[in-house]
Amino acid sequence: MSTAAARRFSVGRLSAALLAILLLPLCYADEKSIVNQKLEVQKHLKRLNKPPLKSIKSPDGDIIDCVHISNQPAFDHPLLKNHTIQMMPNYHPGGLFGGKKMSRGGESKPKSFIQRWHVNGRCPEGTIPMRRTKGKDLIRATSMAAYGKKNSQAIPKPPKSVDPDLISQSGHQHAIAYVEGDKYYGAKATMNVWEPRIEQSNEFSLSQIWILGGSFASDLNSIEAGWQVSPDLYGDNNSRLFTYWTSDAYQATGCYNLLCSGFVQINNEIALGASIFPVSAYRGSQYDISILVWKDPQEGNWWMQFGNDYVLGYWPAFLFSYLSDSASMVEWGGEVVNSQSDGAHTTTQMGSGHFPGEGFGKASYFKNIQVVDGSNSLRPPKDISTFTEQSQCYDVKVSKGGDWGTYFYYGGPGRNPSCP
């Protein structure tokens, strides 16, 4: 080897060595970041998933943990440390069981609803079923702190007029019926369940009841229940039963299902966050669910019932400020996230993905919508109004009569020739 060639070889080796030295901290930093993320994920999983007495593998891929009722997430709340679980509401609203204000111990009809995980087992008495959170669920979230939470842009506020700029800023769109101007102590509805198509994984489509108190600023109280498709939250496109609550307009308090302390579950048969099956088909069979949320006039807790037979649990009154008294607004309907990728409206569907005008078997509906009044009685809502940001994308049409009482069709396809 010539002297020049040797010199070039030596310089090349030196450059490679220097490059390796420079890259070493970066590699170490990346490795440290990965390790830290894994530790953070494990820490959150330990907090979210409670030790099960039994675990059941669902055909849809979920794992349902049967957790002792006294070990559920609600009791991580400092104000629930010495809480005595209320195993039944003191009163159901009048009109629910043939017009009587049913006290505890009332008979109910035979149970018929089955969640998918029931195929492989049931949770024993004294436990509650919890959908297990997996590491990949947390990694999909924008942050560990954001997992299981809505953002403040989700506030379903029906304004007097709609500013298109506000629509694009919020990213959330609604098609709802609502009542306000009175004191409300609960609400009920039957809604058919669909499996709407979601365009982007960070979008969702849901149909629910909102029980609202306070202003639509930083102090909004909200209790919510219904069904949703949310790929980011659950990792699939299944329609799932869900609840949500907040006492500060989705800022620091509240969460979906049992992903934080708050909701106290007493039922061992229905898992919040578990998939609903079967779902409705266009021009085919229609499947619906009934949800009732009401305030126990004796204890002041807000209870939730699924169908005619499953009293799921309650939100303790102390979680709320305004709702510790009553709600000032009730809403029923749909919500989607419109991320407007490439500047175009999302094709994420609301409900069936078809407009209300198509009617039964094609459009999604809420029927027998009712509110609970100050005498703890269910009654049809008075002076019902509707709201949608862009009716050419998602719409809502209210009607009444017959066995359906007060009802409405709602939903839509999102982007279409009239909604670019």
| Strand/helix succession | HEEEHHEEEEHEEEEEEEEEEEE
Unreliable spans: 99-112
Number of helices: 4
* Class computed from helices, strands and strand pairing: alpha+beta
Helicity level, as a percent range? 10-25%
The averaged pLDDT comes out at 88
C-alpha termini separation = 70 Å
Q: What is the strand content?
A: 25-35%
Major sheet details? 9 strands, antiparallel
Quantity of strands, as a count: 19
Using only C-alpha atoms, the radius of gyration works out to 25 Å
- The geometry reads as globular
Set out the fold topology.
Layout: H1 3-48, E1 52-57, E2 63-68, E3 127-131, H2 135-140, H3 164-170, E4 172-184, E5 186-192, E6 205-213, E7 221-229, H4 231-234, E8 240-246, E9 255-256, E10 264-265, E11 288-295, E12 302-306, E13 310-315, E14 327-337, E15 364-372, E16 378-379, E17 385-388, E18 395-400, E19 406-411
Antiparallel strand pairs: 1-2, 2-3, 4-14, 4-17, 5-11, 5-15, 6-7, 6-14, 7-8, 8-9, 10-13, 11-12, 12-13, 15-16, 15-19, 18-19
Structure, described:
With 420 residues, the chain is of the alpha+beta class. The protein contains four helices and 19 strands. The strands form three sheets. Strands 5, 10, 11, 12, 13, 15, 16, 18 and 19 form a nine-stranded antiparallel β-sheet that branches. A hairpin with a 6-residue loop joins strand 11 (288-295) and strand 12. The radius of gyration is 25 Å and the shape is globular. The termini are far apart. Mean pLDDT is 88; it is low at 99-112.
